[in-house]
Amino acid sequence: MPRGMEETTATKRKFFRIANFPHVIGIIDGTHVPIAAPSQDEEVYVNRKKFHSLNVQVVCDADYVVLNFCTRFPGSTHDSYV
């Protein structure tokens, strides 16, 4: 995350130049990262597309720097919960 008001303002400006969208300091998205079938609780790692995965959430800044990520949810976890 931006540290201090100057970095926050600079990040907001970059996002505005990119997408004409004001007051943004980070973008968020999720994806399913394929994994080998685990030996325990295998079924909870099967996602809606029927492959084993982790449901991963990532937050990036305007320079595509990863600010935060979460890898704790198995593939069967609904996106709205992550």
Automatic annotation (TrEMBL):
Which key words tag this protein in UniProt? Metal-binding
Q: What cofactors does this protein use?
A: a divalent metal cation
Q: Which InterPro entries match?
A: HARBI1_animal, HARBI1_dom
Pinpoint the DDE Tnp4 domain residues.
Answer: 28-82
Report the GO molecular function annotations. metal ion binding
Protein name (database record): DDE Tnp4 domain-containing protein
- Organism from which the protein derives: Petrolisthes cinctipes (Flat porcelain crab)
